[in-house]
Amino acid sequence: MSADTFRLQKVLETFRSSLNENKEVYVKYYIAGWQELVTFMNSLGNVFSFISKDVVSKIQILENFLSGESGSHYVTIQSMVKYELENDLVDLTKRGSHPESGCRTLLRLHRALHWLELFLERLRTSTEDSKTSVMCSEAYNESLAQHHPWLIRKAVGVAFCALPGRDTFFEVLNAGDHAQVVALLGESLPLIAEVYQITEDLYAKNNLLELP
Ligand SMILES: CCCCCCCC/C=C\CCCCCCCC(=O)N[C@@H](COP(=O)(O)O)[C@H](O)/C=C/CCCCCCCCCCCCC
């Protein structure tokens, strides 16, 4: 199996590594989790490339901060928020001199993490008759869609129609038979939910949930 092969287990491991004992979220592992998900999306075909390009560009912005001269402030989401707010590095109400701050970039991924949580929970509890496209779009409408303009929502709707059926989807997750995938999803979801909630609370406390 090549290093580029997607495995659900790797997603679980990266999100597990992203939390420390103080419940801080490591940016390095958070973006590594997203990188794994991009690998998965790329394996589904070119119709998803406009989505993966957007995720990759956001991962790149955060990687640049991490490896830059202020990298030590970007080790955790908590330290990033503190540093950027204390140094006026975030456009809070309209886009200005900091259109690609770490806080606003991570917020886009954070909203997408909510979609992932809702989708994976549907997948975990799905039956043979369930359609991935329906599960995906229901999760999307309950989360990310509220933040996307009409044109993006339409393009996303088209992409959902190209999703493989449930059986193929389970195979691509590369985690064994259906029962094993369901078990691993059951293990992964609380971790993803915890990372999501910690970030949500931090952003809410600092009034960062609507960054332009
Ligand atoms: C455990 C694995 C099983 C499931 C694997 C799913 C893999 C999903 C990988 C990525 C999910 C998509 C993440 C999308 C991030 C979107 C961030 C965003 O909202 N960007 C928009 C706003 O950015 P700014 O303009 O403000 O910088 C941007 O405009 C959006 C562009 C593209 C559309 C994104 C739509 C996302 C739809 C939901 C994902 C569908 C993936 C289906 C694959 C199963």
UniProtKB/TrEMBL annotation:
The keyword Cell inner membrane does not apply. It is found in: Cell membrane; Cytoplasm, Cytosol; Endosome membrane; Golgi apparatus, trans-Golgi network membrane. It comes from the Eukaryota. It catalyses: N-(hexadecanoyl)-sphing-4-enine-1-phosphate(in) = N-(hexadecanoyl)-sphing-4-enine-1-phosphate(out); N-(9Z-octadecenoyl)-sphing-4-enine-1-phosphate(in) = N-(9Z-octadecenoyl)-sphing-4-enine-1-phosphate(out). Residues 26-174 form the Glycolipid transfer protein domain. Pfam families: GLTP. It is a peripheral membrane protein. Keywords: Cell membrane, Cytoplasm, Endosome, Golgi apparatus, Lipid transport, Lipid-binding, Membrane, Nucleus, Transport. Belongs to the GLTP family. This is Ceramide-1-phosphate transfer protein.
